[in-house]
Amino acid sequence: MKALLPLFIAAALGAIAAPAAHADSNDNWVVRFGGSVVDPKSNNGNLAGLGSSVSSSVRPSASLEYMITPNIGVDVLAAWPFQHDVKLSGLGKAAQTKELPPTFGLNYHFLPDATVSPFLGIGLNYTNFFNTKGAGALQGAGVSIANSWGVAAHAGLDVKLSPKWIFTADLRWVDIESDVKVSGSKVGTAKINPMVYGVSLGYRF
Q1: Of 12, 57, 20, 53, which is closest to residue 36 (Cα–Cα)?
Q2: For labelling, which of 12, 65, 92, 160 has a CA lying 20 to 30 Å from the CA of 33?
Q3: pLDDT tens by residue, the chain, 205 residues
Q4: Could you tell me the pTM of the whole model?
Q5: CA 59 to CA 76: how far, in whole Å?
Q6: Domains delineated in the chain
């Protein structure tokens, strides 16, 4: 996935350099507030020879998008820290962690003047894991999860409620794979790769 990062950067720079002007120059920004669910895929890899699973988490989220043209926007997604339990087969809960997953994206809006406009995008995610603690059989052990860079895919629908207000439903697939260490020794790689489901209310300005 990291091999795709230069392609994303090149695409973003190309879009920023696009000569087309936004017809509605005073409404280039869209700020959205809502909620997101980070839902890790099943079978999150083997840790210390045991199958692992990572729980889902729901948190408030917000995004800011700048419309370079009526069709092309660049955005950043932020959220309140998500919290996940890590379980191991036969041992139950073995760790708990928090994460912040800021995601930067380039979106294409197919019908920007319509009441309902679908969009697709590609982006770059950075996930910072923190406050990771051992639990159950690993209570008191030093457990750490490495931070992660990865590609993110984005799709959704904008529903125009008025010239200024927008309702958005979207989903993202995020590439998150992180090394896990216990007492400084690597015990495996957590392959989280979640779907992120979101709904939000947006305002153009």
Answers
A1: 57
A2: 12
A3: 444 444 444 444 454 444 444 444 568 999 999 999 999 998 888 888 889 999 999 999 999 999 999 999 999 999 999 999 999 988 889 999 999 999 999 999 999 999 999 999 999 999 999 999 999 888 888 999 999 999 999 999 999 999 999 999 999 999 999 999 999 999 999 999 999 999 999 999 9
A4: 0.84
A5: 16
A6: 2-10+29-204 (2.40.160.20)
